[in-house]
Prior knowledge:
Bound molecules: 5'-O-[(R)-(carboxyoxy)(hydroxy)phosphoryl]adenosine
CATH architecture of the largest domain: 2-Layer Sandwich
Strand content: 15-25%
CATH class of the largest domain: Alpha Beta
Number of domains: 2
CATH superfamily of the largest domain: ATPase, nucleotide binding domain
Largest sheet: 5 strands, mixed
Number of helices: 10
Structural class: alpha/beta
Amino acid sequence: MILLGIESSCDETAAALVRDGRETLSDVVFSQADMHALYGGVVPEIASRNHITVISRLADEALRKAGLTKKDIDAVAVTYAPGLIGALLVGLNFAKGAALALGVPLVPVHHVRGHIAANYLAYPALEPPFLCLAISGGNTAIVDVRGYTDMKLIGSTHDDAAGECFDKAARVLGLPYPGGLPMDNLAQGGDDTAYPLPRAKIDGAPYDMSFSGLKTAVVNLAHNASQKGETLDKAGLAASFAAAVSDTLVPRTMAAAEALGRDTIVVAGGVAANSRIRADFEKAVRSAGKRLFVPPLKLCGDNGAMIAAQGYYEFLAGHTADMGLNAYATMDIDAV
Length: 336
Ligand code: KG4
């Protein structure tokens, strides 16, 4: 079964063709990051307009690259939540039009479920159950993946997402948007003990997280240094920051896996590309005697293939929609 996957929840427009949830036939991503870099972050209206301009061409290109025609598409999967509402609506309406015109099912996909499914494309042997940490620009969640479409939210951030925090910290250090990769590069060779940064805990919620205090600490350090005319050890601050984020994410994920009796840990989302987080997970998983799956860098960020992959399993579970399907800016992963 071949699914067309459409993704437009933020500043990447993407279309892909995937067979049976596992085999990527084509995966075309158009990143608008350069356009938003000018403003230091995503401008929702600009994102929506750019999605409209390129989405149809991207779907054609995905078909061409896969060597397929429209008649080969068996279903259309689309991200319908969570994300920027105007941006989501562009992909959703395109997908509705495609499904209607082709006479095939329309399959709604939760964006974070898609990030998790990126791992199915990379690792053919991976099957639920497993414990997943999903970390992206807009979402930070520890999820118990009991089945392909049976998920339970175990913990999440009370404020900023991990990626958002990387982007804001990068901004005060004068790095371009999106700031995660430049922060990662800057941290290489930096002293991760250069600055004492907070690792917040939430009373009574051991798997929940908070990143706003960490973000404020970095902002204050940068502003104080500039007001006093002091030189900031930027590499040290980037390394200390990555350590603080990783110390917040990795032990919670490991503790949740232990509590739930999960032997397999999966990491997903754009921030899963972070070298410190990947290295810390490798160490923690090795000493706990568990298995670790982290997507290759290409599959960490937003793409259409992950939506088609999860769409396949949603379709098998009978999760299809009619033309009344709406988009939602927020939605818990287990509220689907
Ligand atoms: O998954 P994604 O492409 O979009 C969302 O679904 O939100 O994630 C984008 C986020 C951005 O915040 C970006 O700065 C971050 O992933 N990111 C990284 C790295 N590469 C991308 N964060 C930390 N280290 C990286 N190497």
